[in-house]
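queue> holo job accepted (manganese (II) ion)
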Amino acid sequence: MIIVLRPDATGRQIKHIEEKIKKMGLKPWTSKGEERTIIGVIGEEDALRLAPLEVFPGVERVMPILKPYKLVSRDFKKEGSVIDLGGGVEIGGNQIVIMAGPCSVEEEGRLLDIAQKVKSSGAKVLRGGAFKPRTSPYSFQGLGIEGLKFLNNTKKATGLLVVTELMDAKYLKYVEKYADIIQIGARNMQNFELLKEVGRSKKPILLKRGMSNTIKEFLMSAEYILSEGNFNVILCERGIRTFEDAMRFTLDINTVPVIKNLSHLPCIVDPSHASGHWALVRPCSRAAVAAGADGLIVEVHSNPEEALSDGVQSLYPEKFDEMMQDIRKIAEAIGRTV
Ligand code: PEP
Ligand code: MN
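queue> job finished
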């Protein structure tokens, strides 16, 4: 249920309505837009059917939200959400934010080298996994907490922000300490307990779409995070499973405009996992930016042959730089910056 307030509703009237909702055992989420304030009501809505909220001073109308996701919906918040990532970087606004770096954090010197290079090409965020979700238990599993420390040192040395994956809530305190953005990977998109945990964190969350999940399920997972109080969620399309086997996954480019239409949350694209091959990363990135993505997360490695994971889809820094030149031109053509 959404309660749309009159443009002249006072703070006291808003508080009164919030109190009333809480008394009914429901949760009010107030969103102050440019023109109007809206209160989203979360919980068992049957209680509301008997309450004549329309008669409360300050209320203009009460509308049911028919979609299963509420807080992430554009019905709840008309303006696109702009998320402050720290260090003067925002996502969801005019600027397209580029995140780049190796799939896995490996040796510290190598991480620094890659970070400096992607920074000089225009990346604002360094990516790198310290906890790796690998298909095989015999594959490299990541450096764990040591890897987080490498990321943190590299952040200090370069000024880049850091995004890294959290797979298990028991490491949340470490990831919170060392990272600026917490990534929830495709394989954990429906790990609801983990979603609730990061919903209670103050850090921005980068939620990747599960490879076999619909957009509705994707938005429901984001709803878990928002419903715990964390509204700083960035959605990421990273390719889905289809019958096509020429690429690792199929980049579902539709996701970008569909999500931008259904939700106020920023939406980015991961062209590396979506395609699975470095040669496809540049064209997929161009398409993503042209389609309206608010950012990209790209795998870059100074020596992909030696990468401990996802070397085939990693760009050499020089190739990444060429890609960035394309992205700048496309951004300019659609009135955005990089
Ligand atoms: C990654 O970003 O390295 C990763 C494992 O991504 P995904 O969860 O999309 O597969
Ligand atoms: Mn990877």
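queue> The first strand starts at residue 2 and ends at 5.
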